[in-house]
From TrEMBL:
InterPro entries, per the entry: Cyclophilin-like_dom_sf, Cyclophilin_TM1367
One Pfam family named in its UniProt record: Cyclophil_like
Residues annotated as domain Cyclophilin TM1367-like: 4-121
Name this polypeptide is given: Cyclophilin TM1367-like domain-containing protein
Length: 135
């Protein structure tokens, strides 16, 4: 199991990566810092993958806490609430993405993230995992 930390000005969200070619490639480029793009209910930031692995299953309909990779823009996307494309309370992203990880912590801090702010992506320790909401 591989854990990453996403650090924002408003706090930290840890994610556990799923077993996929994209998640494996992501591990090779951490740590990195990126600039946030925001939309109601979702965040997106560039990811410095030099290779864009193709995932067999992509979707635009995700669950709160899914961490997705949009290969067309080489970006990580986090849906945390209804977006402009959602119907009702669903979380529908602007583009089909591959789900590569799952958030372990409370995502309420994501609503405080502003466009143009920074996120730092790094490896995370598994030590306090028992206190995480998804553990």
């Amino acid at each position: 199991m591989h854990l990453l930390s996403l650090r924002f000005d408003s706090g930290e969200v840890r994610i556990v990566l799923r077993r996929s070619a994209t998640a494996k490639a992501l591990l090779k480029v951490v740590p990195f810092t990126a600039t946030m793009q925001t939309s109601r209910g979702s965040l997106m930031f560039d990811c410095p993958l030099t290779v864009r692995p193709e995932e067999p299953n992509t979707t635009d309909l995700v669950q709160v806490g899914d961490i997705a990779f949009w290969s067309d823009a080489s970006s990580l996307v986090i849906g945390f609430g209804p977006t402009p494309r959602s119907q009702g309370n669903e979380v529908r992203l602007a583009h089909p993405c591959a789900i590569i990880g799952d958030a372990l912590d409370d995502l309420s801090i994501l609503s405080q993230v502003t466009a143009g702010s920074s996120v730092t992506v790094s490896l995370a320790s598994a030590e306090p995992l028992a206190s995480a909401s998804g553990a």
